[in-house]
Write a structure and sequence with these properties.
The complex is a heterodimer.
Chain A lengths: L1 E4 L3 E4 L4 E5 L11 H9 L7 E7 L7 E7 L5 E6 L11
Antiparallel strand pairs in A: 1-2, 3-4, 4-5, 5-6
Chain B lengths: L16 E10 L2 E7 L3 H7 L6 E2 L6 E2 L12 E4 L6 E5 L9 E5 L25 H5 L4 H15 L14 E13 L3 H12 L4 E4 L9 H4 L2 E2 L2 E2 H14 L3 E4 L2 E7 L3 E6 L15 E13 L3 E3 L12 E3 H10 L7 E6 L5 H9 L3 E7 L6 H10 L3 E12 L2 E9 L4 E5 L2 E5 L2 E3 L2 H4 L6 E3 L4 E3 L7 E3 L9 H18 L32 E3 L4 E2 H9 L5 H8 L12 H12 L3 H4 L13 H5 L11 E2 L3 H6 L3 E5 L2 E6 L8 H14 L2 E4 L4 E6 L3 H8 L11 E8 L5 E11 L2 E6 L4 H15 L6 E4 L4 E7 L3 H6 L18 E5 L5 E5 L8 E7 L3 H12 L5 E2 L2 H10 L32 H4 L10 E8 L11 E4 L11 E9 L4 E9 L8 E6 L4 E8 L9 H4 L1
Parallel strand pairs in B: 1-7, 8-9, 8-15, 9-12, 15-27, 17-23, 18-19, 18-23, 19-20, 30-32, 33-43
Antiparallel strand pairs in B: 1-2, 3-4, 5-6, 5-7, 10-11, 13-14, 14-15, 16-24, 20-21, 21-22, 25-26, 28-29, 31-32, 33-39, 34-37, 34-38, 35-36, 36-37, 39-42, 40-41, 41-42, 44-47, 44-49, 45-48, 46-47, 48-49
Classes of the chains: A mainly beta, B alpha+beta.
The structure holds zinc ion (ZN).
Zinc ion binds next to loops of chain A.
């Protein structure tokens, strides 16, 4: 697999680390236990287009948000994750 | 060695180098061949027909094919540590001194006692493992499995470490081509002329594919001349790389391909400093599969007799190697292409016994050829073979209309048509489609960027191969962004190809579908009767296609027979899923140089070389080598050394390299706010020049990591992590910074490798440091109090960072210098510390002192403990949000009966403790119901002169003073321990503050 890092260009899979689903957004400070539980544990098991967090630890150390199809492994977009997950904590 | 007669070698012709004779041995017998032979062609040239015994029935087997699809002719190649089992004789290049041995026979190939297995054939039918050996269960390991393993099998592994080296490499290109036959070479020409960067992989050592055996005329010159011309032109193109002896074996995501290059397999052993094989990962924008097709057998009784061979393989042996598999050849074909073998045989001066053609019509031209050469053409099918280990004697033919005939021959060439090599195009779960006119599966779809061309695409004519390959090469170059022109394509005529499908001829005796796994036509019929109709079930029930050849010659025939007996069409029956690798690849090639001491990278601490000079014993911690202890002359074991080191620190001064801790610079106006969110305690209120112990949780509320973080300036913190979590914490903090809290103005820099850091500990620490640090720096308790942290100058002017923190519980500093000064610092500490008896200590003494002080480390920070479990609940701020706060409040994580860290001491002071023992209430019989925890860390405490430990015990801190039972079933130990305060040494901390 190859990932086109927006900062480094096309790189091989081994430079990246997969984290998981990029959809859940960290609840704001003071959110209920249930809300945080959902954020921490609940994930869809998607057959098709997913949005994922990947880390370019072997390159620029950017966290990336990658749209990938779990059936074909096709990557349709790669963007910096910075700012994507809205910060709610302590604001 | 003497050069021996090659009884089955033609006087002239072939692509062998007759000026380079080679000697080799097979089962100890010395034979001769030539440079350019394979082991198979050399065996044939020496008249060897019997080369192995079959997997289950130990039937005599010969050479079936001339390529990597060979199911039968597997040998053990080489001897000793280099012995390689299951090597295909058909692809093993001959070299002088080659040693090969037949497999799966005892005591010898010609007299194999295990051939009695044939008499027990009924128990070896499809599913026999499941049916016969199911009961009683204990018989399986004791009796059945050993017996089966002895009786059935392939070659023997060398059993010792592989002495050779393997390499791994990357390559990048615009157009990758698999195969150097007419389609592959034409594709390379078109793509190369268009300006593409081209890599062409060919598994053979010679380039040309079927052209090497079948010849033909291209651009009005003989094929051999066209190959030479084409290679000459390709050599002039700027970036065309031809890799022979290289098999493309897999297709991966994003245009990544796996290839195995047999760099030195054609030599007895690799030349010095060279690798045996090289594993390539090739990244290509486009790829063209020109891997050709595999001729398929017809299944009939006795079709595994030595001397029965694929028709195209017979042509290859005669034309390419000038070796004659038989002198009087019978040919059995259902298609036009098979007749080319008759023409080849006649040209080579061989006798033709008969041509058996299963098609209703045979062309007038063929009949004329037969009349001229004087051999009969029989309309019908071969139903049986009379022969054995010495080869074919007679074949039985069932003629159209019902009559029978017998033909005397010493070899039988068989052609059932051709199957395009659809492996590479199907590796992304592609299912090939059925094409009626050639009765074969062809690629339907292919992984992105890949196309098939020529015979791999179902185009069998030479003209079509050339034009498809050329067009594919030009199109691939274009779509890869190359704008050059491909020029004129090579041209040739197409041969006629007419075929009447024929898969199986019913007859008496075993008719083999999968030669390597001894799967017969009746096994497939049995599987169908027993309900295993799906091809995936058929495969697993009969083991069809699951041998090292992956069913290259057998899969399609097997499912065609299944289709016939289940009353479905072949496309309805379908194919199994194709998976890489296309050919077996040595595990050593995947490992490459990553074995033994190079299995992973090795990280050395700044004081490593000095420590090695001291004779330190090193321990692997992650990638690091850390000094574990420093033995001295006369010390009888590690415990004595470690005890001395601990006592030296507690009574004087010692130092330990702690550079392996992760170190992160946190910069920016929001650095404090950022740390408040990632630690459970507060850092924004930490004064400049101070250090604080911090604890991080995971978002699920469990403890993640700990360490000391110092504030060096208003907007600059210096954070440390544990050695194990140095990388993961950096990644986690970057996630927090970039994804969770992007509004914070903060930057992270990993500086783990930039600083050499030493802990200097003991009551004489200041005395020692005053010899190292600039005298102007105030190291007094007032000038540099406990938990102080700041930059200082060393004598000589080097800037260092000094932290007054203590893991040992003694008066201690940690001193950091730029990593390049680490070696100098450690030597100066020794020199300056001589008068104070300075003692270097290793990770064992470090561990002893942290247990004595009750500090938690890896065994307690194990991913299942909370801050409260570790006794650190008070650190959790209630005034702010932080990672893990919400989940840490969950009922079970806050439950009163959790297992928490507590100290333990044996009631018998002489007893040794061991970690891992279970904690059980005293007087109870140990069991899962009363298991209340376990011993996490233990050490011999020189300070208390007994073994002590830290345990995780239910309500442990409420039970101080209680005697519990330690149960260690692994070591068979049972003893009582007392639960106690986890801080064994200096509980009020006066020593570290002094
Ligand atoms: Zn990057």
């Amino acid at each position: 697999m190859r990932i086109v890092c927006p900062f480094c260009g096309e790189r091989e899979l081994g430079e990246f680390t997969y984290l998981g689903d990029a959809k859940p957004v960290r609840p704001a400070a003071g959110a209920s236990e249930d809300e945080v539980f959902d954020y921490v544990y609940l994930r869809d098991n998607v057959a098709g287009e997913t949005s994922e967090h990947w880390y370019h630890g072997g390159g620029c150390r950017a966290w990336l948000k990658i749209a990938r199809n779990t059936l074909t492994h096709e990557i349709s977009s790669v963007e910096p994750a910075a700012g994507v997950g809205a910060a709610k904590v302590g604001a | 060695m003497v050069s021996l007669a090659q009884t089955h070698r033609l006087a002239s012709g072939g692509l062998i180098d007759r000026s380079a004779p080679l000697n080799f041995s097979f089962d100890g017998k010395i034979l001769a061949g030539f440079q350019g032979d394979t082991l198979a062609s050399a065996l044939i040239a020496n008249g060897v027909k019997l080369v192995g015994r079959s997997f289950k029935y130990h039937r005599p087997r010969g050479i079936l094919t001339a390529g990597s699809e060979e199911p039968n002719a597997l040998v053990e190649l080489r001897t000793g540590a280099r012995r390689e089992p299951n090597t295909k004789a058909t692809t093993a290049e001959l070299y002088d001194g080659l040693e090969a041995a037949s497999q799966n026979r005892w005591p010898s190939l010609r007299h194999d006692l295990m051939a009695v297995n044939q008499l027990f054939a009924p128990i070896f039918v499809a599913g026999f493992y499941y049916k016969t050996f199911m009961w009683p269960a204990k018989f399986w390991e004791a009796i059945y499995e050993p017996a089966i393993r002895r009786a059935a099998g392939l070659g023997r592994a060398a059993g010792v470490a592989d002495p050779d080296h393997y390499d791994k490499a990357w390559a990048h290109c615009d157009v990758l081509i698999a195969g150097s036959g007419p389609a592959g070479l034409a594709a390379a020409l078109a793509a190369g002329r268009s300006g593409a960067r081209v890599i062409l992989c060919e598994e053979d050592f010679a380039l040309g594919g079927r052209l090497l055996a079948d010849g033909g005329t291209i651009d009005r010159v003989p094929a051999a001349e066209w190959i030479a011309r084409t290679l000459a032109e390709l050599a002039t193109l700027p970036d065309v790389r031809i890799m022979s002896r290289t098999t493309l074996f897999g297709v991966y995501d994003g245009g990544t391909y796996g290839a195995i290059e047999r760099v030195n397999d054609h030599l007895p052993s690799p030349p010095e400093h060279q690798v045996r094989q090289r594993l390539w990962r090739i990244v290509a924008k486009r790829s063209i599969v020109a891997a050709g097709a595999i001729e398929r057998p017809v299944v009939f009784a006795g079709n595994d007799t030595p001397g029965v061979m694929m028709a195209s393989a017979m042509r290859t042996y005669v034309e390419r190697y000038a070796a004659t598999p038989a002198r009087r050849v019978a040919l059995f074909t259902n298609n036009e292409d098979g007749w080319r073998t008759a023409e080849t045989a006649l040209r080579a001066g061989l006798q033709i016994a008969a041509v058996v053609d299963a098609r209703p019509e045979v062309s007038a031209a063929h009949r004329a050829l037969a009349a001229k050469a004087g051999f009969p053409v029989l309309n019908g099918s071969v139903v049986g073979v009379d022969g054995g280990k010495d080869g074919v004697r007679k074949i039985a033919v069932s003629l159209t209309g019902g009559a029978r005939a017998e033909v005397e021959a010493d070899g039988l060439a068989v052609s059932g048509g051709w199957n395009p090599a659809v492996g590479l195009t199907s590796y992304h779960r592609g299912r090939p489609k059925w094409q009626d006119d050639i009765s074969a599966f062809v690629p339907d779809s292919a992984p992105p960027g890949m196309v098939a061309a020529g015979a791999a695409n179902g185009a069998f004519g030479l003209g079509a191969c050339l034009s498809q390959g050329f067009a594919a090469g030009a199109a691939a170059a274009q779509s890869a962004g190359c704008s050059g022109t491909a020029g004129t394509p090579p041209v040739a005529d197409d041969e006629a190809f007419s075929l009447t499908p024929l898969w199986h001829v019913a007859g008496k005796g075993k008719a083999f579908v999968d030669h390597q796994h001894d799967v017969t036509a009746s096994d497939i019929e049995l599987a169908q009767r027993e309900g295993f109709e799906s091809v995936e079930h058929l495969k697993r029930y009969t083991t069809l296609g699951m041998a090292t050849d992956q069913g290259k010659t057998s899969n399609v025939a097997g499912l065609a027979i299944m289709a016939a007996v289940s009353g479905r069409s072949i496309p309805e029956t379908g194919t199994t899923i194709y998976r890489p690798p296309y050919v077996p690849v040595a595990i050593g090639a995947f490992a490459g140089h990553h074995r033994d001491e190079n299995f992973h990278a090795t990280r050395l601490t700044p004081s490593h070389h000095w420590a090695a000079e001291q004779g330190a014993i090193f321990v692997d911690t992650g990638l690091w080598k850390r000094a574990q202890w420093y033995p001295r002359a006369g010390e009888k074991d590690w415990l004595e050394s470690v005890t001395r080191e601990v006592k030296a620190v507690r009574s004087g001064v010692g130092f330990c390299d702690v550079s392996t801790l992760g170190k992160i610079d946190v910069h920016g106006p929001d650095a404090g706010a950022f740390l408040d969110r990632v630690y459970i305690n507060t850092f924004s209120n930490l004064a400049v020049g101070k250090a604080r112990y911090g604890l991080m949780l995971r978002e699920d509320g469990m403890v993640y990591d700990d360490g000391t973080t110092s504030r060096l300036a208003e907007d600059h913190y210096f954070l440390t992590t544990t050695t194990a979590k140095a990388g993961p914490v950096m990644q986690h903090l970057e996630f927090c910074r970039q994804v969770l809290f992007p509004e914070l103005d903060v930057q992270l820099t990993s500086v783990s490798d930039q600083w050499a850091q030493f802990s200097v500990a003991g009551p004489k620490t200041r005395d020692l440091l005053r010899k190292i640090v600039d005298p102007a720096e105030d190291l007094s308790n007032e000038g540099f109090p406990f938990m102080g942290a700041r930059e200082v100058s060393l004598r000589g002017g080097i800037k260092a960072r000094l932290f007054r923190i203590s893991f040992s519980g003694e008066m201690a500093f940690e001193i950091s210098v730029p990593a390049r000064y680490g070696d100098a610092l450690v030597r100066n500490l020794m020199l300056a510390g001589k008068r104070f008896g300075v003692t270097p200590y290793g990770t064992e003494a470090l561990g002893v002192m942290r247990i004595e002080k009750g500090h938690v480390a890896g065994p307690e920070l194990n991913g299942t403990t909370t801050a409260a479990d570790l006794g650190l609940a008070k650190m959790m701020s209630t005034k702010k949000d932080f990672i893990g706060r919400a989940m840490a409040g969950r009922e079970a994580l806050a439950a009163a009966d959790r297992q928490v860290v507590v100290g333990i001491k044996p009631t018998d002071k002489m007893r040794r403790l061991r970690s891992g023992a279970h904690v059980i209430p005293k007087g109870e019989i140990p069991g899962p119901d009363n298991d209340q925890g376990y011993v996490a860390s233990v050490c011999f405490s020189p300070t208390l002169d007994q073994w002590i430990g830290l345990a995780l015990v239910e309500r442990g801190r409420e039970r101080i003073g209680e005697i519990v039972h330690a149960h260690d079933p692994l070591r068979g130990e049972d003893y009582d321990v007392e639960l106690c305060n986890s801080v064994f040494y200096d509980p009020d901390g006066g020593r570290q503050r002094g």
